[in-house]
Structures are given as C-alpha cells and as structure tokens.
Design goal:
Elements lengths: L1 E4 L8 E4 L10 H58 L20 H11 L4 H24 L5
Antiparallel strand pairs: 1-2
Keywords: Coiled coil
Length: 149
C-alpha cells in the first residue's frame, strides 16, 4: 500500500512506500522520482565540495597576501625608524660650552657653533615633532586607503 505525504509549503505530494509494502508495490514513477532526487543531491554535493575547495584556495591566497603585507609594513616601519635614527642629532657636547681656559672667550665658542650650523634646541624639537606628525599621518592614510588592503 502506498501512502501520499503532503509536504509543507504547498509542494507536490509524493507517494512514498509504507514500511510494510513490498518492493513490487513501489511504482516505477516513485522509484524514478527518488533516483532523480538522489542524483540531484549527489550533484549538489559535488558542487558544494568544489565551492569549498575554491573558497579554501581563496583563504590560502588571502593568508599569503596578508603575510606579504605584514612583512612589507614591518620593513617599511624599520626603514622609517632607520631613517629617523640616522638623522643628525644635536650632541650636548657640541653646544656652546664654558671656555676651556681663561684666555678663550665665550664669544669664540658661539661663533664656532654658528659656523658649524647647529640648530637651537627648540627649533630641533619643533622640526622633529613635525617629522613624527608627518609619519603618523602617512601611516594613517596608508591604513585607511581601501586599495592597499
């Protein structure tokens, strides 16, 4: 005996064999319907497996790209750090000092410092602060730009 199951949502009724029904009682149309559903399910499984494989490849690609970007950022930050470290720094010892002897006047030391091009300390601080601000702005702009991600 066959029992018709009405599926929810207005789908068509499909005749399904009752547990006590013999193999001979299953109509060919029901068997064909089940076979077509099985092959459609298997095809869907193959498609989903291919999609999972494609997504895994994309994740691997993105991971490699992320690692390359991190390495590039680290090298860039090291270059910026090295660049700022190699800039001339005012040495306290080169600033105007007291005369070494009573025959050497302070004016000669000031003239010597002016000739060497030493910057006053406040100007040096302002220059370095401006440089740090500029580097931070460049870094922020790099982080915000969508085409570098």
């Amino acid at each position: 005996a066959l029992v018709a199951q009405n599926l929810k949502g207005g789908e068509k009724s499909v005749a399904a064999p009752v547990a006590t029904a013999s193999r001979a009682e299953v109509t060919p149309s029901v068997e064909d319907e089940l076979r077509s559903r099985l092959s459609a399910s298997q095809l869907r499984i193959v498609q989903l497996a291919a999609e999972v494989h494609r997504l895994n490849l994309k994740v691997e690609e993105m991971t490699r790209e992320n690692q390359e970007l991190r390495t590039a950022v680290q090298h860039h930050s090291l270059a910026v750090t090295t660049e700022t470290e190699t800039e001339p720094v005012l040495d306290v010892r080169t600033l105007p000092q007291r005369p070494v002897s009573m025959y050497e006047t302070r004016e000669s030391l000031r003239a010597q410092a002016a000739l060497s091009g030493a910057m006053p300390q406040s100007e040096e601080v302002v220059r370095r602060t401006d440089q740090v601000t500029k580097r931070i702005q460049e870094l922020w702009a790099t982080m915000q730009s969508p085409d570098t991600r």
